[in-house]
Amino acid sequence: MFLSAFLLGLAGGFHCIGMCGPIAFILPIDKQSSVKMAFQTSLYHLGRLLTYSFIGLLFGLLGKGLYLAGIQQQLSIVIGVLMIAIFFIPFNKLLSFNFTSPISKLVVKIKKKLGFYLNKKSNTSIFIIGILNGFLPCGLVYMALIGSIAMASAYSGAFYMFLFGLGTIPLMTGAVYLGNFINIAVRNKIQKMIPVFVVIIGILFILRGLGLGIPLISPPNESLKVENPVKCHH
Fold first, then answer.
1. What is the rounded average pLDDT of the residues 155-181?
2. What is the pLDDT averaged over residues 2-8?
3. What end-to-end distance do the CA atoms of the chain give, in Å?
4. How far from 17 is each of 5, 126, 147, 169, CA to CA, in Å?
5. What is the DSSP letter of 221?
6. What confidence category does residue 19 fall into, taking pLDDT thresholds of 50, 70 and 90?
């Protein structure tokens, strides 16, 4: 399942260029030095990865609580069904639900902070831009976070989101170095394939929850049960 996080980030990189690309295009990096440019681009990515990992840790902790409640299999199936269901909901319908309204004020503050640091030319500012960038609302990030809940562990949730962020690095790096280097028509065609990939991941989560005994894909039910590491001795 961890591989699915990386592949989701890799495929979603085209979406990221559209959503976060404008930030990457205008990063205050030193383009006169290839060494500084590489270092500062890495700082930007490191900031994003730290944010994704932190959020993944929180959602993985939530999943751990559900895991300890003994509903790990059901949780995996529900998450898979949710991912597939979102694919069949018309995009216009999704837009009618403002998921970020409860935190809209926070998002506005983050954007203001981004604007402030985008005008500062320093390694610290670039790192902070990456951190703030990771908090911006994004549909693919939401999908990855749903997956991190199913990891049922704070550390696994963090690692799941880390891998997702890692997958976005190649194309986002291209955006930093080359700007809008992908034709919009080509990008749109590729983005149409992203929901299909999300459905495939959803199916994998459902198979995981069914416990069919398929190695690596659908492990036996017993492997999903909670094991108490503390043994009582009388």
1. 86
2. 82
3. 39
4. 18, 18, 22, 11
5. G
6. low
